[in-house]
Structure formats: C-alpha cells, structure tokens
Amino acid sequence: AEAGSGVVSPSAGVSDIQFELPTAPPLQVKGPITPFLIQDLEEDAHRLSASLANIVGGLGSSLHAMCALSAAGIEAHEIACNSIGEVVDQSIKHMSSLIVKCDEIGENMAPIENLVIQIRAVKRTLDLLESELAKE
To answer: Is the pTM of this model over 0.70?
Structure first.
C-alpha cells in the first residue's frame, strides 16, 4: 500500500494505513465576503472531501482485509475441527478392533485354563505317588 493512497493489501493491518491530511490552516474570514473567499472556501471543502474519501476508502479496505483474515481464521478452525473429528473416529475404530482382539484372546485362553487344571491334578497325583514311594 502506498502512503496516503488509502489502498490496502489484504495482509495489511490497521496500523499500516497512512492518510494524507490537509496541511493548510483553516480559512480565516477577515473582511467582506468576496468571490475569492468563496473560491478558497470551496477549494478547502474539496480538499477536505478528498481527504475524507481517502480515509473512508482506507477504512473500507482495512475492514475488508480484517474480514478476509477472519474468514481465513474461521476456515482454519473448521479444518482443525474436521481433522480432530476424523482422528477421533479413527481412534474409536482402532479401539474397537483392539477390544475385539482382546475378546478373541480371552476365548482362546479358555482351553489353557482347562490345561492348567489338568496339569495341577497330574502334579498332585505325582506328589501323592512320590510320597507313597518315599514311605516304602
């Protein structure tokens, strides 16, 4: 953006805008009203009008840039929310799969529990036999 142009790039901040304000002192009326006085007054009014148009245009551009930044922020937030939703969905699917695998392992462990019971029974029998052999 050029200084004093009131034109603002979308990435410009409010503090980046510069305006040219009239530097001429206000018109002072001394004496009778003449055509020259009216002409000077009209020129001052045109300068002030141009400055006001410049300021309003710059503010409009600044507001436009701020709206563009807000829209970009909202879009980034939406993308983040959608991404989090997808990640949560994937995590739920993985957790469900893990639970199913754990259930399968639990079902596969049932025969092992039966083997443990049988092994303990065989061990008790062997211990009894050993103690009988030790008595003889």
So the answer is: no
User: What CA–CA distances, in Å, run from 55 to 16, 25, 64?
Assistant: 13, 19, 14
Query: In this structure, what token pair is assigned to residue 109?
Result: 């462990």
Amino acid at 16: D
The arithmetic mean of pLDDT across residues 118-124, rounded, is 93
What is the spatial distance between Cα 71 and Cα 50, in angstroms, rounded to a whole number? 31
| Tokens standing for residue 33 | 């009203």
Nearest Cα residue to 58 out of 42, 66, 73: 66
Total number of residues shown for the chain: 136
Provide the Cα torsion 32, 35, 41, 45; round to 10°. Answer: 150
Rounded Cα–Cα distance for residues 44 and 51 (Å): 10
Q: Which residue has the tokens 């949560």?
A: 88
Write the pLDDT tens digit of every residue in 10-51: 454 445 555 555 565 665 667 788 888 889 889 999 999 999
pLDDT tens per residue, range 54-76:
999 999 999 999 999 999 999 99
Backbone angles phi, psi at 38, to 5 degrees: -65, -40
